[in-house]
Amino acid sequence: MRPKPSFGFPVSLVLSVVLAAAGASAQQSAQEERVRIMSVVGKAEVKSAKSPNWRPARVNMPVKMGWDVRTYVESSIELRYESGTVIKLGENSVVTLSKAYKETKDAGGDVKMKIATGEVWGNVKKLVNKKSNFSFETPTAVASIRGTIPHFVSQPRRDLIECFDGAMDVTNKASGKTVRLEDKQAAVLVPGENDISVSTVEAESTPWSETTEGDADMSLSIGSPASGEILEESPVTVKGTTEPGAKVTCGEQSATAGNDGAFSLSVDLTVGTNEVTVKAESEDLSKSTTLILEYKPQLTLSVKNITDNMEVMAPELSVEVEVSDGAEFSIMVNKEASASPVKLEPGKNTITVTASDQWDNQLTQEFTVRYKESGQLTLSVTSPAEGQKIDTTLIKLQGTTARGASVTVDGTPVTVVNGTFSDQIHIPDEPGEFTLEIRAELGGQETVVERTVSYEPVREELTLTVSSPRDGEVMEQSPIRVAGTTTPSAKVTVNGRTATVFSDGRFTADLMVTEREAGDLQIEVVAANEQEDMTASINVQVGIKSPSINTSMPQVIVVGQNQRASKNDELTIQVLDRTPNDEITLSVELNGGSEDEYAMEPNSYERVKLEEGKNTYLVKARDLAGNVSGVVRGERYYLPGPLDIEVNTPDENPYIIDDLPPMPRDVGGIETDIEVEIEDQIGEVPETILYVRVQGSGQNVQLNKEPNYVYTGRLRLNRGTNQFVIEVEDIAGNKQQEILRIIIED
After folding, report:
1. For the residues 710-725, what does the mean pLDDT come to?
2. How would DSSP label each residue in 135-168?
């Protein structure tokens, strides 16, 4: 199975894109195609053609013609063209969008991308116009594409160009030779050579293909090691990124991705080829990918219990051999194959130990061992040496004595086989000197050897280094990832919270912060072991521009919101926000017009001028982090007054009636019509008149509302003088009165 391409290995790739131009005049009339950033993992930056400065790349940011884009270690970025083409950059990549002219049915598109270094995938949409071209250029080749999924990798000794779908023409820049790559074919070009080597891509594996199993919406990217990499050590740490909080498994190992999606797993390898499958799961989504890793440990050979020119008293000798993983060893004594324990001849013996691995590497060690026959009691202690310094509570005892002799160490018997003895002697875990008494006895003979050793246990020196965040750094995201290194056995806390310490001494902790910590924040990191502790303090600035920190929503309050009308021409608005030092932008839309914006401090007031008459308003607020308040809608009448009363009927005041026919004085029921018109200096809001009434002569008459501020009614009259008070009031509390006299003369 072919290894899955990965963005996790360092490459030095120089690519440039060559597109066939449709002519200078056609390009001048062509429209620039819009390009935007789809996704950013890790750290990526952009630089315009007119600026020497790089700036952080953000999702949905436009990338224009002539701009540069670059990624850092364990980072990637995806660019989407207006046509639907997607370009993905792996880590440590730099590209330039030289041209980006839009393709139409009438005019050919001209898109040119130069890639200075890194690894690039493309998902190029099929070109509609035959005049359009889409090409990539490496240091050795030019690849012209009309709609395919290409993959480019440049390594120091070769360039690899793969076609996963569609077709593309690859031209050797040195010789001009051109080959066509069809579906699932690859071309390899070597700098300085004129040929192109074409082979078959055994397994399809692209950022958009189905070779990585799982859901399309689930992301999973392996940063290191790269698939196909040859490793000399096991276990290996697999690092990558996926959805934040996802569970990541590899065999029996599991980890939880951090808030930035990063994860790492320690994986044991077997010698040779390993298929390592990494799976990420989050809620109902999952995705897995398989790495092909070659474990090729460096061949090592160590013979533990034999030294050159050693002398033994027994005819047999155990040979203790250690070799690297997967390696084998053989033993020869005096040029004849043997197995441990080996048989020795009296006098000089040559013992040869050879280690070999599956890649035909070999290591050989040769020893001279003298076997001395003796009928009398002998005792030789080869380990420990006198005065030897040790750092563990186990002392390795080895030596020889006469055949049939017994051996004790401080009175405790040890096993003797054909005159050879070996054992592990335990001592108390107390630093200092210890003396061992090794005694051999045979047929009444006795001999003693003493060995004094010095025990000094290794105490790990406590260290603590905080690598991030940096002192004085402005933090705009929560949680804050605190990371560094310490002694592997130490325990680490960050502001009292326990951090995760890995086997290599790396530690991480996620420190949650909210708007309550805005401003200066001291991060105290404490590392401690059984002997001591160390403290490192980092001072950072917690910003409030990120919604992950600044979580509180502004609240808009319109003072007197339930008040329908006012004599005051101001609408008073307060914005509440519990984030210290936040900056509030108040948006006010009055009477359906354009929005006016006002800069405010949290919990302050803003007064907006009203127009005379009816006002409708729509008010909202946002803070530095983009948190937006609820929308407050309402209406407020500004009625400055005064009100005027115009009496239309009767048409005179006082009004004298002298033409009634004679009638008895006890006759009642004389009535007259009344009509008044109200003026409010506005003339457009008759609905604001609360009431118009007439009082007098024992009457309280509520006049009827007619169109256009007109009010009518009937009044009952008595002979003589009838005096009435006409009173009007609007909803803002403006009042006015007018005296009306009607006189009936006999």
Report:
1. 94
2. EEE-SSEEEEESS--EEEEEETTEEEEEESSS-E
- C-alpha distances out from residue 220 to 208, 224, 249, 569, Å: 12, 12, 12, 60
Dihedral of alpha carbons 479, 481, 482, 487, sign: positive
Which pLDDT does position 557 carry in this prediction? 96
Residues across the chain: 746
Averaged pLDDT for residues 682-710 = 94
pLDDT at 396: 92
Model-level pTM greater than 0.90? no
Q: Is there a contact between 159 and 188 (Cβ–Cβ < 8 Å)?
A: yes
Q: What mean pLDDT do residues 589-599 have?
A: 94
Residue percentage of the chain with pLDDT more than 70 = 91
Average confidence (pLDDT) over 694-701 = 94
What is the three-class DSSP state of 65? coil
Give the domains, in start order, of the chain with CATH numbers: 15-200 (2.60.120.1440), 220-295 (2.60.40.10), 301-371 (2.60.40.10), 379-455 (2.60.40.10), 464-542 (2.60.40.10), 555-638 (2.60.40.2410), 644-744 (2.60.40.10)
Q: What is the pLDDT of residue 516?
A: 85
Q: Are the C-beta atoms of residues 212 and 220 closer than 8 Å to each other?
A: yes
Is the CB of residue 586 less than 8 Å from the CB of residue 598? yes
Average pLDDT score over residue span 25-40: 72
Question: Phi/psi class of residue 50: alpha, beta or left (left: φ > 0; alpha: ψ in -120 to 50)?
Answer: alpha
Sheet hosting strand 632-638, strand order edge to edge? 565-566, 632-638, 613-622, 584-590, 595-600
Please choose, from the candidates 508, 529, 432, the residue with its C-alpha nearest in 3D space to the C-alpha of residue 466. 508
334: number of Cβ within 10 Å: 14
Distance CA 351, CA 319 (A): 9
Question: Exposed, middle or buried by CB within 10 Å (0-12, 13-18, 19+), for 90?
Answer: buried
Whether the pLDDT of residue 211 is over 50: the answer is no
State both tokens at 598: 């006002």
The rounded mean pLDDT for the chain is 86
